[in-house]
Structure formats: structure tokens, C-alpha cells
Write a structure and sequence with these properties.
Layout lengths: L13 H17 L1 H15 L34 E6 L5 E4 H6 L3 E8 L5 E11 H8 L7 E6 L5 E5 H4 L4 E7 L2 E2 L9 E4 L11 E7 L31
Parallel strand pairs: 1-10
Antiparallel strand pairs: 1-2, 3-4, 4-7, 5-6, 5-10, 7-8, 7-9
Helix pairs in contact: 1-2
InterPro entries: OxRdtase_Mopterin-bd_dom, OxRdtase_Mopterin-bd_sf, TAT_signal
Protein name: Molybdopterin-dependent oxidoreductase-like protein
Length: about 240
């Protein structure tokens, strides 16, 4: 599947996702036969869902593979590069081994999706984004950080203050195992206190910018400042 040409998928909007969640609940309530049918439908939709929403449905029991481009070609750790550039004094390019050699930090935190599903106490481990920014030397006039992904389409952003939080990681591990390709590996972003669409998968570039650039889903109406329980019209309890 990963050797096929990438094809741009149709974005999964809020109404579609709410309908999918209703189907998931119906599958659980109606029994195994309907649940299997619903699961087949969700598997197809999940390939076009970078938020992780379909992966948090109660009948799946685990995260799913998803993207906004269809199949995403995998990158082996030995071939991986992460660039840090923009308004910095010392642009850098990190290999996977370079990132492994830096101080690692582990966070155990709930994962909250924007439609309401929560996966409690999920461990992530990696390099603090703040450490990479400090090493690069952020220049005067910078106020934000933009993230690119090697799927070629997905993007995200944070303010500089958000990016410097201790609970924002460039993650190499998830659930105490290397981040798999399906989960956005070998390296993904993890923004613990925000809805999961901010935690960009297949991270390839970090660019320090003068202003915030909207990410992929922000261009479809999601909030740029996506604090759990304080954005997107939701009142979820903060993650912990």
C-alpha cells in the first residue's frame, strides 16, 4: 500500500465525523455483525482523517491509520531528516539518530479528539520542541512556529509561547514503543494540552515564522488555538 502513488483525499469535515461517530455507537449497540460492517466503513474513512477521530471510536479500541492524501510512503529511521529553519540564527537538519541522542522526555497524558472521544493516559516520549528552538536561536520578530509533514499536504502551527511549553514534544515514541508509520512515525509532533489534530504526523519541517500560519484543518474551520475544553465550541474537561 505504501508504494502506491499518493492521491489527495477528500477532507473529512465535522458533520461527516459526527455521523461516523454515530455509526460507530450504533455498531457497538447492535452487535458483532453490524459492528463489523461499520468497522469496514470506518477503515476507509480513517485513511482521510488526520485528526485521529475515527481511531478513537469505541468499537475500534485503538488508533487507526489515516491521512489527508491517501497512502503515505513510509520513511525509515535511517533515511529520516527533520529541518529547523526560518527566523533562526542556526538552521539545522537532524537525523533520527541525532534526535535520539538528545535528552528525552516522557509525558503520560490523555489524548482528546475534537469530537469528544478520549484515550486516557497515553505515553509519548521525545525531544522537547523548546530545546530544538533554543538550539536554533530564535531571532527577534519571531512569534510562531510552522510545521510541515512528509505526506506533502498536512501542516500545523503554534505560537512561539505554545511551542516552548514543556508538554510539547517532537515525539519518537508512543505507548513506550517507536512511533510507527501508521501513527505518524518515525517522528511526529505531540501537543499534550490541545486537541489531537494539532499533533501533526510524519513531521519533516519546523519553521520559525513572524506570524501564525493556519494549519490544514484550521483552513476548514477548526480553531488555531485548540486548547482542550476551551476551543472549537467544546467544553471537554482539560486533559491530564
Amino acid at each position: 500500500m505504501n508504494d502506491e502513488p499518493e492521491q489527495r483525499g477528500t477532507p473529512v469535515g465535522r458533520r461527516v465525523m459526527l455521523g461516523v461517530i454515530a455509526l460507530g455507537a450504533a455498531g457497538v449497540a447492535a452487535g458483532p455483525a453490524l459492528s463489523r460492517s461499520v468497522d469496514s466503513l470506518l477503515a476507509g474513512l480513517s485513511k482521510q482523517d488526520p485528526t485521529g477521530l475515527t481511531g478513537l471510536l469505541p468499537d475500534s479500541g485503538q488508533f487507526r491509520y489515516y491521512s489527508v492524501t491517501g497512502p503515505v510512503k513510509s520513511v525509515a529511521p535511517a533515511d529520516y531528516r527533520l529541518t529547523v529553519n526560518g527566523l533562526v540564527d542556526r538552521p539545522a537538519s537532524y537525523s533520527f539518530a541525532d534526535l535520539q541522542a538528545l535528552p528525552q522526555h516522557r509525558i503520560v497524558h490523555d489524548v482528546q479528539c475534537v469530537t469528544g472521544w478520549r484515550v486516557p493516559a497515553t505515553p509519548f516520549e521525545g525531544v522537547r520542541l523548546a530545546d530544538l528552538l533554543e538550539a536554533a536561536g530564535v531571532r527577534q520578530g519571531a512569534t510562531a512556529v510552522h510545521f510541515d509533514c512528509f505526506d506533502g499536504s498536512y501542516t500545523e502551527s503554534l505560537t512561539l509561547d505554545q511551542a516552548r511549553r514543556d508538554d510539547v514534544l517532537v515525539a519518537l515514541k508512543m505507548k513506550d514503543q517507536p512511533v510507527t508509520h501508521d501513527h505518524g512515525g518515525p517522528v511526529r509532533l505531540y501537543v499534550a494540552p490541545m486537541y489531537f489534530y494539532k499533533s501533526a504526523k510524519w513531521l519533516s519541517g519546523i519553521t520559525v515564522t513572524p506570524t501564525v500560519r493556519k494549519g490544514y484543518w484550521e483552513n476548514y474551520g477548526y480553531d488555531t488555538d485548540a486548547w482542550v475544553g476551551k476551543s472549537n465550541g467544546r467544553d471537554d474537561a482539560p486533559t491530564s
